[in-house]
Please model this.
Amino acid sequence: MTVEKNNTINNEKLEEQNNNVELTEEDTAEAVFAEDQNIVEENGVPEPDQIQLLQEKNNELEEKIAEFENRYLRLQADFDNSRRRSRIEAEANEKYRAQKLIIDILPVVDNFERALIMEVENEQAKSLKQGLEMVYRSLVDALLKEGLQSIEAVGKEFDPHLHQAVMQGNDENIGSNIIVEEFQKGYLLKDKVIRPSMVKVNQ
Model:
């Protein structure tokens, strides 16, 4: 057998193998297509109307989710605000817990101060006055520890937030709107006015 004949035989065999490979690839592609076709036939392809309906339902669900998220955020904000208000109220209650008691005690303090400005001569009265001064100082110290402080008045400019004008003066030697006399002492409890000063203000 000649070399040329051998080459021809070999070429034919190679061509046959190539044809077999091509057929195998084609068969595989056809098989895959057939499988996909079966899946499509089993599950069905949505019609345009069905696609539109699904899209509408999807949009509706997205709107509901957004609505629930907004509602959740509002509820969270309301909860945070409520908790903040409760904390502020609790702090205020703690800060001014003695306010009612102090307001009730202030008239007693006023009476002590009126008694202590009186002049006494005999030793018995002086001894009594010293006792009153000790009680007064103890009472005032206790009130100071709770945050009570007196409001400055005489010589100060009238402040409607701190003072209550009950009389007016007309002294040319004193500036306008200056307090010239105090009739009842005013008090702050920490930063809150619990009793304004009753004063006379120069016009």
Remarks:
- The CA atoms of residues 188 and 194 lie 6 Å apart.
- DSSP finds four helices and six strands in the chain.
- Strands lie at 148-150, 163-169, 179-184, 187-189, 192-195, 197-202.
- The first helix runs from residue 3 to 43.
